[in-house]
Design a protein that fits this description.
eight-stranded mixed sheet, 8 strands, 24% helix
């Protein structure tokens, strides 16, 4: 049950890509404080972008308090995360990662969420925006009971 993050960390990376990797690392470690410390004071998380059962108005989770509440509602309820990034496109102060987030949920369920995960950082390298583009219905269609081989 180790942490799986597929990424070439040996090469120098643009700031937004470094922030994205640090975010995934903190999430897989279950380290809420380390994750929150990656965000600018006025940072915003939209995961997923638009209205959802995590954000009914679709306006995102703002500032440390809002982002902390998002963690408690979502990330904090997952037993284990695996991030597999198949491609990453960095430009300017942003990075768009294409991949799959696999979540292992209480009760022995697994869900695979395919998406595009976009990070924007400020000059200080802190995340000003994290926007996740994924479809709830597609992710929920992958929900399945975990077998001993998984």
């Amino acid at each position: 049950m180790g942490v799986q993050v597929s990424w070439d960390t040996s090469a120098e990376q643009p700031p937004a890509r470094r922030a994205a990797f640090a975010s995934m690392t903190a999430v897989t470690a279950g380290d809420k404080e380390a994750w929150l410390d990656l965000f600018a004071p006025d940072g915003v998380v939209e995961d997923p972008v638009g209205p959802s059962f995590f954000d009914e108005e679709g306006k995102g989770h703002h500032g440390r308090e809002g982002i902390s509440a998002f963690w408690d509602k979502t990330i904090g309820n997952v037993e284990r995360f695996e991030f597999t990034i198949r491609d990453s496109h960095a430009a300017g102060d942003e990075c768009a990662n294409v991949g799959t987030i696999t979540t292992y949920l209480p009760g022995g369920y697994r869900v695979d969420t395919d998406g595009v995960f976009v990070y924007r950082v400020g000059e200080d390298g802190l995340i000003t925006s994290m926007r996740a583009f994924w479809e709830t219905e597609r992710a929920m269609a992958t929900a399945r009971q975990v077998t001993t081989e998984e």
